[in-house]
Write a structure and sequence with these properties.
Layout: E1 3-14, E2 19-30, E3 33-38, E4 47-58, E5 60-65, H1 93-100, H2 103-119, E6 122-129, H3 132-142, E7 145-152, E8 155-158, E9 166-169, H4 171-188, E10 196-198, E11 201-202, H5 210-223, E12 227-231, H6 235-245, H7 249-255, E13 263-267, H8 283-290, E14 293-296, H9 298-302, H10 311-317, E15 320-323, H11 332-347, H12 355-369, E16 386-390, H13 402-408, E17 415-420, E18 423-426, H14 437-453, H15 465-468
Parallel strand pairs: 1-4, 5-6, 6-7, 7-10, 7-11, 12-13, 13-14, 14-15
Antiparallel strand pairs: 1-2, 2-3, 4-16, 8-9, 16-17, 17-18
Helix pairs in contact: 2-3, 2-14, 4-5, 11-12, 12-13
Length: 479
């Protein structure tokens, strides 16, 4: 196998205990695996990459993404979210968007999402989506390490009056979709040189029966794959579960033996003991005791005025915190930045939710959630998932603490090179053999225009896009 040496001015290396800053160091990988981290490598290298004046860091692990739809959140969901849904857009905006989106749009979104994630330094992503076959094929094409979770559920939520959330149940359909998900995982887990992995993804805690979640728990153990579930993501969901079971969503998951170290809870932000739920309890303690992980996607909530209470509090309790993008923009840089800033605001302290805390969540936390000690770090034996950052740019200069610069100042333009599984998938800011960015943006624009034109088909009142999401300013006809 060819041996590649990267010589960099700064390396975010892992010494077995945690990330460390290595100045003027070298990283060597053979095939898909790192074999050396240090200085003055004595062996032969077939390829040498000069990263002088740059920062070499581990790739990010996005533990919560919806590639097949997130790009079409842009220009539609921002500034929207009714107070009777406690600011959430899940029950009115999401069904309208999903019903109006066609299959070609989903495919365009998957391709665009992978390009966007790679440009932001993400090397592993968990996709919770409706087109697993297409997603796996594109993961192999673009070279993005992808855990694919075909979603399934026993019910769908809806509103028929714009005021209340209701549920339409079809347990047989949920069971059938679960069986298809297991079949897909059994056929595809570990394919494409290990780049594509399986993920069990029951959709939401309030749309799944106890039987479906218990079946998922058993299947996760049997298949040896991670499990993820949206839970505690809205006030409506929280109180729906309290009405059904007399317990918080997190307490109920504990009591049905669902929670475990291989479970990643999507969001877990509206909790017993928090101000949004106004319900006594200690969900943070429940999650910490179970060993489960939390996929925190701060931006999807912050844009609607909702904040986790709080990222530092979850960390202090010992919960394994990870970060996800969930919506547009699909940028782990932004996820780290918002996790840090919002965490400081909620705690009213500067010295919490530090750059190191959120960088750890974006790398080591994600790896721990997946049971992968070979990801999220630059160490011998780890996978060669690496990112070379500019250090001499408008946003990055000057550099004293590279982690603070990446978290608080970096832009996607500062991502110069991305290597996944030993393969260079982004070089000098360009994805080799990928569609032209302008062409890809044009395809996404067309998908959006078709969706916006068809928007009323999924809305309870048949409203079009302008009624659901008015333009920020009136359109001016200057003729």
């Amino acid at each position: 196998m060819p041996r590649t040496l990267i010589r960099a001015s700064t390396i975010i290396a892992h010494d077995g205990a945690g990330h460390r800053i290595l100045r003027d160091g070298e990283v060597v990988f053979e095939g898909d695996t790192i074999v050396f981290v240090g200085r003055k490598f004595a062996g032969h290298a077939d390829v040498t990459i000069d990263a002088n004046g740059r920062i070499l860091a581990p790739g990010f692990i996005d533990t919560h993404s919806h590639m097949a739809g997130s790009p079409l959140d842009k220009s539609f969901v921002e500034d929207q979210g009714k107070r009777n849904f406690y600011n959430s857009g899940l029950f009115e905006m999401l069904p309208a968007r999903s019903a109006a989106q066609d299959l070609d749009a989903a495919h365009a979104c998957v391709e665009f999402s992978m390009m966007e994630l790679l440009h932001g330094g993400t090397t592993t992503a968990l996709e919770l989506g409706p087109v697993p076959e297409y997603t796996a094929a594109q993961a192999a094409r673009f070279g993005l390490r992808t855990y694919v979770g075909p979603m399934y559920r026993s019910a769908r939520w809806y509103t028929d009056d714009g005021r209340t959330v209701k549920y339409q149940w079809d347990e047989a359909a949920g069971t059938a979709a679960f069986a298809r998900a297991i079949d897909w995982i059994e056929r595809n887990d570990g394919t494409h040189g290990g780049l594509v992995k399986g993920l069990l993804s029951p959709s939401q805690v309030d749309t799944c029966t106890e039987a479906l979640l218990r079946g998922t728990r058993a299947a996760g153990t049997r298949l040896g794959v991670p499990v993820t579930l949206h839970a505690a993501q809205s006030v409506n969901e929280f109180h729906e579960m309290v009405q059904r079971h007399g317990r918080s969503p997190i307490e109920w998951l504990r009591d049905i033996d669902f929670l475990a170290p291989d479970v990643i809870l999507g969001h877990a932000i509206i909790i017993a003991g928090g101000s949004w739920a106004q319900y006594a309890g200690d969900d943070i303690g429940v999650m910490a005791a179970s060993g489960c992980s939390v996929a925190h996607a701060p931006w999807v909530f912050a844009r609607r005025g909702i904040a986790m209470e709080s990222f530092p509090r979850y960390l202090k309790a010992g919960i394994n915190m990870t970060l996800g993008t969930d919506t547009a923009p699909q940028s782990m840089i932004e996820a780290m930045r918002y996790a840090a800033v919002v965490g400081k605001i909620i705690e009213r302290q500067t010295e919490v939710a530090t750059a190191a805390d959120v960088f750890d969540a974006a790398t080591l936390g994600g790896a721990r959630a997946l049971g992968r000690e070979d990801l999220g770090r630059i160490a011998a034996g780890a996978k060669a998932d690496l990112v070379i950052w500019a250090a001499q740019s408008v946003s990055m200069s000057p550099v004293r603490d590279p982690i603070r610069n990446i978290v608080f100042s970096a832009q996607t333009a500062d991502v110069n090179t991305v290597i996944v599984n030993g393969r260079s998938v982004l070089v000098d800011g360009v994805i080799p053999d990928a569609p032209d960015m302008k062409a890809m943006a044009g395809r996404l624009q067309q998908a959006g225009e078709r969706m916006w034109a068809n928007m009323g088909s999924g809305d309870w009142a048949g409203r079009g896009v302008e009624a659901l999401s008015p333009q920020s300013y009136p359109v001016w006809d200057a003729d």
